[in-house]
Amino acid sequence: MDNDTAGSGRERLVVIGGDAAGMSAASQARRLKDPGALEIVAFERGRFSSYSACGIPYWVGGDVPERDALVARTPEEHRARGIDLRTGTEVTEIDVARRRVRARDVDSGAESWTAYDKLVIATGARPVRPELPGMDAAGVHGVQTLDDGQALLDSLARTDGRRAVVVGAGYIGVEMAEALLKRGYEVTVVNRGGEPMATLDPDMGRLVHEAMTGLGITMVNDAEVSGLLTHEDGRVSAVVTEGARYPADVVVLGIGVRPQTSLAAAAGLPLGAHGGLLTDLAMRVRGHEDIWAGGDCVEVLDLVSGQERHIALGTHANKHGQVIGSNVGGDYATFPGVVGTAVSKVCDLEIARTGLREKDARRVGLRYETVTVESTNSAGYYPDAALMTVKMIAERRTGRLLGVQIVGREGAAKRVDVAAVALTARMTVEQMTALDLGYAPPFSPVWDPVLVAARKAAAKVRGS
Fold first, then answer.
1. Boundary residue ending a domain (255, 279, 308)
2. How confident is the model at residue 4 (pLDDT cuts 50, 70, 90)?
3. The pTM is what?
4. 54 carries an active-site annotation
5. 115 and 142, same structural domain?
6. Where is the FAD/NAD(P)-binding domain positioned along the sequence (predicted)?
7. What is the mean pLDDT of residues 36-40?
8. Per the residue annotation, which of 32, 54, 128, 301 is the catalytic one?
9. How many domains does the chain have?
């Protein structure tokens, strides 16, 4: 086993993880410090770097024509910019005391140690894969990396049948259901919750359920998967719940993800209640001066509830990387937290949320009022005006905005950005009613749906 030691009078930054957070950090640090002052070594166990994992369902569904369209910067491009990116290399151990990491070549199995002066952990998240019979069968796929997406497409090409079962109905589950539907599959979604999209309140999730059913997707709610059946050749044949069996030629797991922090845990680094690494505002791992972490492997501060959360989103990961790279490179930056904004779609149905759900507010001890309004995405008389439903949650007595959920057609999802800004500014719903939003009949009614909800919420708060 070789020992690679830092030296030559320059610092060495080691990055674990070659996607959004890791390579954003490496690239920003390189912009601030040239190779003569800072050596950068990055390890990535897969073949790809700096790609959009969020785009994988659209690549699988055919909206994105080719895999390489999702790659923002190739390993070769990173190397040309002075970053020693080693793909196909998995870090297997972090030795904090001796300031080094052990890495293994995925193909040859050869191992070596690499010393660091500064370390960035950007190991991402892993798809939840329950330990149930048949979960490792051929034709069962998690979708987290480009390699995962390629494996799924290869599997679809080898499959003669046209029956797909998606296990889970969160963001990945509903997006993969759409992708498989577009590929001509008969799609069944098996969901342990009462409604799809547990990131929404159940009344809003019901709207998603109805839309998915209308598209021809079979929704099975309140169903716990107990195992998978296989053919004699070992390929999956069905998904089994307590009361039913759903034939499947391919199975996609959309149950969610967990922080990939086994390396960090083994090294004794601090983890939060959700299993993610804990960092300070500069994204430095708490208690460790020269170790930073970012992306899907960390927990972040929820600015509305004041508690730590795990949210796996590329937007956060890229911001984390910019903050880390700035601090490693001698500049200064912080990441203050999030309000929990996310958008998605199923065919033409747009889904958005930001802030707290009702159960989130109850869990942290907030008392609240809710309103739900129906409006349209454009003036009612404008051609093709479509309905949208907006739910707003406000704190009782103070009227502080706590959360917004939106389900509708074109133009619905991005309206949540107005609410995200209001949450960040700690605005009340009364203050929101005076926001000077853009108006023209093709884009909005005279009173934008978000402002209609704010007016009703303000009136309800005054009444309480």
1. 255
2. low
3. 0.93
4. yes
5. no
6. 12-318
7. 97
8. 54
9. 3
